[in-house]
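Holo prediction. Input below; ligand is 6-O-phosphono-beta-D-galactopyranose.
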Amino acid sequence: MLHKKLKPFPENFFWGASTSAYQVEGANLEDGKGPSCQDVKELPPGTADLKTCADHYHRYKEDIALMAEMGFKSYRFSIAWTRILPKGTGEVNQKGIEFYNNLINECLKYKITPIVTMFHFDMPAELDKRGSWSNRDSIQWFVDFAKVLFENFGDRVKYWLTINEQNMLTLVGPIIGTMCIPEGTKNITKEVYQQNHHMLVAQAKAMELCHKMLPDAKIGPAPNIAFVYPASSKPADILAAENYNAIRNWIYLDMAVKGIYNPIAWAYLEENDACPTFGEGDAESLKNAHPDFIGFNYYNTATVQASLDRNENISPSADQQSARGEAGFYKGCSNPNLPKTEFGWEIDPEGFRVTIRELTDRYHLPLLVTENGLGAYDKLEDGKIHDSYRIKYLRDHIKQIQLAITDGANMLGYNPWSAIDLVSTHEGIRKRYGFIYVDTTDEAVGSLNRYRKDSFFWYKKVIASNGADLSE
Ligand code: BGP
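Structure of the complex:
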């Protein structure tokens, strides 16, 4: 649709940015925090460990002040489960409560709305030992954790996100250092989707509890949604795209929003003898979630073609944004129409609009962008970082949000990744995303001084003009 006139961004639009606890905080075993799966995993070679990260734990005041200087209306961060419950269940660590109280209060001091992710890739190591999400008890562990969060922070936190990128945990969990598969598992797909089922039920129960305990709060899921294109107009490629859309995107949101398993995804599970077992009450719990909005991370689209041979050998995904394939179901391929980042991720701003429209069409719920951004090798020169490539990426995506709003989408906010440089899931701190540069490297911890990147000043103008001025 070529609009004659664009609608403005809504008033009270949440302009902000995101981080996650294990990637930004550091102090990973300080003040009573227990280890999470991230702290005990084998690090990808040459990447920074998680002891320091951006040292946000000690420097959050300086960081929030910088966010306030940019004019942030929201800050999306996650709460480390093991800071609150060092062993995952049982005793509460008051120092952990204190830290997040301080962080939340600091945001509120500047009228920045805290948007809190309850779980971002950091399962308590003690719970991993007990089988992690493969153990049905994980549903209760998560609900108990949620209760502690709602009790302690619910008076001030009005926006909650349940599980960050549950779809990536399920599809590429081992690459991002999460998801434990019990030794000797024969049917890995079945095991993974049983864990996925437990997460879905845990999420649904947490949403129900939130509505009960905090009637004026809002809660939603936060998957990584990337619309899947067919490689061509061949009908077989269209079917392949529908297949991958079903298992990459819709299985998560159909369940979160409607409480049903997506039928194409279910057929895939049947084919693989991988249908999850429902426990007592699961079906009801799944129906009772009623999210208030959909949070979603968008980096780029995916493109697939038909896989017409059930014995085809398809290599596994490299990470969150690379589609792999399933013989006889779909096969990932690159999109020749799209440029790539320095780290090989395709860049597709228009695909953002496509994805937003599709989400609007399918679910009729308000949408909150919880991640979007460009990972690059930034250079600090004379105290400056000239990241025009990032400005271009963000500008192109913000334009597409406005087009989608004009198309009829209800957009709550834009919280790109990341507020400040932090450690990537598997490519170290050299892959930077922030508006704020942190002086540190994968090889050694640096001064940790903060520097405003060019994108910092640009985003400040964008926010001040409520998205009307995107010029550099
Ligand atoms: C998302 C995760 C984030 C984040 C981001 C960038 O999948 O939710 O935690 O790290 O991707 O990915 P990466 O760090 O792999 O570059």
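The longest helix spans residues 188-213. That is the main takeaway for now.
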